[in-house]
Amino acid sequence: MARGQQKLQSQAKAAEKLSKLKKQQGHSATDQKKAAQKALVHVCAICKAQMPDPKTYKQHFENKHPKNELPEDLKNI
Fold it and tell me: What segment(s) does the record annotate as region Disordered (predicted)?
């Protein structure tokens, strides 16, 4: 049975091997965050919140900023 330093080295080697396999798969958390950030294209003019589509943006604007006038690009949606 491995003890002490030998055990730590074995665990480190296994963790490194596992991380390399995950990177090869391309499903890392940073990749997912980058893809999600690209989908958020509409930005609220008042609070700078980001939304994926104009319909969600319009709902956000009507609910969070009812006293403000609706922007021109949202009036026809």
Answer: 1-35, 57-77
